[in-house]
Amino acid sequence: MKAKTHFFKNLDLTSILVPEEDGAFTGTKVVCTVGPSCQEVDTMCEMLDAGVVGCRVDLTWGPLEFHRKSLANLQQAMRKSRRLCCTMVDTLGRELMIRRQVKIGEDGWPIHEESFAVTAGQQVIITTRTDVDASSNVLPITYSKFTEMAVKGDTIYIGRYLVCGADSASLYLEVMDVQGDDVYCIAKNDAVLDGLLTVFHAERSVEGLANVQNDLPLLSDYDKECLHILAQDFEIDFLSLSYTRAAEDVREARRFLDSIGMSNTKILAKLESRQSLLNFQGILNEADGIIISRGNLGLDCVPEKMALVQKTLVQACNLVGKPVLLTRVVDTMINTPRPTRAEATDVANAVLDGVDGILLGAETLRGRYPVSTVTTICNISRAAEKVFDHHYHYEHLMEVAIDVGEMTGADGNTVPGESEEENATPGGATDTEGPAPANGNKAAAPPLHQARGPLAGVRRDDSWNSVTSAGAHHPLPSLGVAAKTMARFSQVASAGSLAGLGLGRSAAATSAYQRAPYISKLESIASSAVRAADRVGASLIVVYTHTGKTAQLVAKYRPPMPILTLVVPHLVSDQLKWKLEGRSSARQCLISRALLPVLAAPSPSGDQLLQEAVAMAGRVKLVKPHDHVVCVQRIHDDFCVKIISVDDMGAGIKRDDTVMSHSVFGSSPMAVQGSSGYDSPRVHNNPIGNKFGPMPPAIITTGNSFTLGGMGVGVLSPAGLAAARGSNGGRQ
């Protein structure tokens, strides 16, 4: 896997030091953890206005009634601020804790009145006995089989819930002996233990997995009870699955959610241990997103490898287009109004790496400056986004797709959805492999439109012809082929190693190939829309969607402009009744980078909906007069990419009396010079546009649009242009 590099186009420090514009759009998302510091409705409103797009309630700590109140207050805050916010529930799962006496405060939050001071070199006993009270010398643990896990020389970490591991509430112990129900340890550092104390058994092996894992269930009885109760009163958008170890954990959680009527809830797998890293590909394949829990993960990995682990995980999520969130970024802002230099740099580097969002923990749960923390994160993220190399990110995705395709080609197999003409030799004959016939003559090649080998029987999608053939003369595969290969990577790579991507090697691969044609259409449309937006210097991308999948694929390519996601509610039936779905899809889009979801009212006219969307974008200053907007929509079974202009007032779509054809992917003999201002200085000197050769011209209409070949992209002949004008009401 290639490393991503960051090269700044502008090295002028004078311009770099210019303050960021307040109120500008921030593509990187911020999710907060709700606690005593931010549970009030007014505080939540301030945080939503500052940039929070999601709120998490953590079942690890706090009574159910407190979390119910948090979700109820969030609903009030959304109505009051008129902003969407997704809800996330974090599970207790396999967490190990120290058993202590607790009381409930006036605000409903549990409180430990007593703290313990431990000095370096002191003996500390971790015991599984239930008749012992916690003290500075003896710490009773909630897991009865802990003595079976500990071995002399192991490192045990005990710290306050949601601490960073570097403050006074963090204690590192070395196991000296195990006797009966007791684990005898020596303290490595001074610490003051306060609040809920969690226990983490660090992996003793340098490379593999040597520790005995606890056999606690993925979802505790308390988790199941709380989820069942909360689902009756609130719409839960995401389940944060703590201590995910393997793909089967995600499948188990999915089965449980379906059983209690939470089939719309998406699962975010939390990576918190070495075991989750070793099984990461399978987890990524099953989960809807990833949370990199750097607190525990940092304890299970050596410090010099943690940065590489983070970058690898983020890059893998980017490749398959699934959101990835990062934790533990500005821990010092729990008590101070300003982050350290290292923390500010950490946030910026995470944005440059490609994370979708930041998940705040103790900073908002018990921190003194929850609103300032959100504002700081957004400001740092916005500054980093300005220098994010969008062109390189786009090229990187395409190059990885090509690399995967070449690995497959080494096995003599065809890229999914690729036509046989594209594999033809220059003389027109196709290469064939296999035993020669008995008469000694070379075996006859199969028909050009007939799939060979493992692809036999898979229907070929002819709507790709106009896309893939455009780059046939180029030494690199065309964008269509690369996008289809990327779709194949998205479907198969997580099920095993990259070496297992060859056709016919597994049932999972075969199943993915059978799904490839439709997924490839979405991939091609998404990547083409991003490149079109860059070529014409668009200020906004508008995507129509029902489930959010298309919008997430567009966001995967990290365009520099916001992606206005119009989620149109739709009717679904469970064979007993009909219901309108769409609100959850809109909220679930919130954690994907650059997506700005809007719940749109169903309309018989897509153009009218687009007109209202552009007008709204103008009101919130996402677009200005004469700006270009790229629109991605699906009309029946056809996909359409079109480019429109904002009118002179910045309040809607510019209407022209003529239909213009303009190539946004390469030169076109039909391009109308000086028409409607579609030409941009970025068109002729752009790495995205030139990397993979010219593409067929897209049909640009100002106002109404039409589609060709089921894709909305094609080459028009003069007769076709006349027909297009006729389809727009015969206007000349």
UniProtKB/TrEMBL annotation:
Region annotation (Disordered) ranges: 408-471
Cofactor(s) listed: K(+)
Biological processes annotated in GO: glycolytic process
Low complexity bias spans: 434-447
Domain Pyruvate kinase C-terminal, chain residue ranges per copy: 523-635
Domain of life: Eukaryota
EC number: 2.7.1.40
Keyword field: ATP-binding, Glycolysis, Kinase, Magnesium, Metal-binding, Nucleotide-binding, Pyruvate, Transferase
InterPro entries, A to Z: Pyr_Knase, Pyrv/PenolPyrv_kinase-like_dom, Pyrv_kinase-like_dom_sf, Pyrv_Knase-like_insert_dom_sf, Pyrv_Knase_brl, Pyrv_Knase_C, Pyrv_Knase_C_sf, Pyrv_Knase_insert_dom_sf
Key word Transmembrane present: no
Keyword Nucleotide-binding: yes
Catalytic activity: pyruvate + ATP = phosphoenolpyruvate + ADP + H(+)
Protein name: Pyruvate kinase
Species this chain originates from: Chlamydomonas reinhardtii
